[in-house]
Amino acid sequence: MSWLSTSQRAVAQSLVQQQDTPFFCYDLDKLSAHVKPLVDQQVVKLWYAVKANPLSHIIKTLDHAGFNFDVASSGELDQVLSQGVTPARVLNTGPAKSLKQIRHFANQGVRIFVAESHNQVAWLNQVACEFDLQFDVLLRVQLRFDKAQHNPLGGNTLTPFGLGSEQWQALTLSDYTHLDFVGLHIFQWGNMLCSDTLAELWQAMVSPLVQLASELGIALKVLDLGGGLGIPYDAHSTALNWTKLLDTLASIKSATQVDELWMELGRYAVGECGFYLNPVVEQKQNYGAHQLIVAGGVNHLLRPAVTGQAFPAELLRQSDANTADFHIHGPLCTALDKLGTLALPSDSADGDWLVFSQCGAYGYTESMPFFLCHELPAEFVISGGEVTCARAAQPASSYLR
Ligand SMILES: Cc1ncc(COP(=O)(O)O)c(C=O)c1O
């Protein structure tokens, strides 16, 4: 099975004729087709979590498709606004909202915020007061569940994302005259691939959230379930079924009696549209194992080192050789620089290119590009069947001072 379509493979083969360092390519045609059914429904209002991939072309494609935007820093906000998105379609989430950042957001016209602490509530009220505005605010809630699995987003463990119900109960809404508390936000599990587990988690949230809203005196107009929708990273996993998810979301909407259900999608929106081309520097045998040393590693794709989960990879050229398991190591001098152990044709060797798929989300901008002074990767986009360079590769001299 190949993760690339025939046309994507042809683009990759043509680009490697011109490139000699690793690069990303995002298929905006595939992205547009993928997100159409996501936005084409009345159940849930969708925001794009810009952290997944802030490239201007991706933002414009999602803007055109009808997504709103969830930003978590002043940099993300400025990037979204400079693509022509109006601030009324921006939501601010994130655990580190300083007074300075809140003022910047207010100044730029943002009026919807997720508050993650009592201090954030007070600072939001202070800034709204200074600017003589009303902000819409959702309180981010962190719940604990029986039988919960560990998860990179925290699951049941202590995280900075919001507060427990008990902590929120101490809030007196009437103290904050410039804030309209419109709802609650909750998001603790990432990359979920089982729709039944997602449904169980969401359903388990309903009663504690409805109870908290009533104790606080919040008329629950909005419930924001965050992101967390997964994509397959190996051939054995199956993709989520959006229609089935919508049924579950519709039942959550009616159980909570909210006017609006919101989600901020990152991975599920853009993860599948990107691939990463990586030249093989060397093959070697070591302690009975096959190793491939590749030009780009966690300096361009950090996620495997953080989560222990590889991006799927295949050899770009056709090979009839039997497959063997290869340990794939990047160029940095840390054993953490490993992109996974993957089955590849046994004749994979220097001069070959590997193509890693599912790299549209949490790829380059999540990584650590400066360690050991390697090149920054180029980024290409495919749009209307045409390939353009969004950003050329940059040598280390472009960022070293
Ligand atoms: C507040 C918030 N919403 C949404 C997302 C996007 O999550 P995902 O990529 O799982 O859709 C994130 C990711 O960290 C987040 O922090």
Features of the shown structure:
401 residues, alpha/beta, Lyase, Ornithine Decarboxylase, Chain A, domain 1, TIM Barrel, 2 domains, nine-stranded mixed beta sheet, eight-stranded parallel beta barrel, 11 helices, 17 strands, 24% strand, binds pyridoxal-5'-phosphate, pyridoxal phosphate, lyase
What does it look like?
By secondary structure, the chain is α/β, with parallel strands linked by helices. It has 2 domains: 139 residues, Lyase, Ornithine Decarboxylase, Chain A, domain 1; 173 residues, Alanine racemase (TIM Barrel, Alpha-Beta Barrel). It has 11 helices and 17 strands. Strands 1, 10, 11, 12, 13, 14, 15, 16 and 17 form a 9-stranded mixed sheet that branches. The protein has an 8-stranded parallel β-barrel with strand order 2-3-4-5-6-7-8-9, surrounded by 4 helices. Strand 13 and strand 14 form a beta hairpin. Helix 5 crosses helix 6 and helix 8 packs parallel to helix 9. It is globular. The mean pLDDT is 95. The structure holds pyridoxal-5'-phosphate. The site of pyridoxal-5'-phosphate (PLP) has 16 residues, from strand 9 and helix 10.
Binned strand content: 15-25%
Shape-level CATH architecture of the largest domain: Alpha-Beta Barrel
Heteromolecules bound: pyridoxal-5'-phosphate
The chain-level structural class is: alpha/beta
The CATH C-level name of the largest domain is Alpha Beta
Number of separate domains: 2
Low-confidence stretches: none
Largest sheet: 9 strands, mixed
Approximate shape: globular
Total of DSSP H or I helical runs spanning 4+ residues: 11
Q: Could you tell me the number of beta strands?
A: 17
CATH fold title of the largest domain: TIM Barrel
Report Rg.
Answer: 22 Å
Q: CATH superfamily of the largest domain, please?
A: Alanine racemase
Question: Which range best describes the helical content: under 10%, 10-25%, 25-40%, 40-55%, 55-70% or over 70%?
Answer: 25-40%
Mean pLDDT: 95
Spell out the helices and strands N to C. HEHEHEHEHEHEHEHEHEHEEHEEEEEE
- The end-to-end span amounts to 45 Å
Cofactor: pyridoxal 5'-phosphate
GO molecular function, one term: diaminopimelate decarboxylase activity
Domain Orn/DAP/Arg decarboxylase 2 N-terminal: 43-270
Pfam families: Orn_Arg_deC_N (PF02784), Orn_DAP_Arg_deC (PF00278)
